[in-house]
Amino acid sequence: xxxxxxxxxxxxxxxxxxxxxxxxxxxxxxxxxxxxxxxxxxxxxxxxxxxxxxxxxxxxxxxxxxxxxxxxxxxx
Length: 76
Description:
By secondary structure, the protein is mainly α. It has one domain. The protein has helices at residues 14-24, 32-49, 55-63, 65-71, and strands at 8-9, 12-13. The protein has a two-stranded antiparallel ribbon with strand order 1-2. Helix 3 packs across helix 4 (65-71). The model is unreliable at 8-12 (pLDDT under 50).
């Protein structure tokens, strides 16, 4: 989902900045594809909450992407 927002962390931006944020909370991704998948879910969560996510939310999404995806799925 494109939100018009960029994930930034200091001198980093985009996927590199996103990975840097996760490294600080001791979560590593096997590759950029996995990081991009989690970034998409984090964007959905951010839009839903309308505020930055806390570390526990970021960790939950990274460790449970399928559960997170179901939580963010809306059906009328």
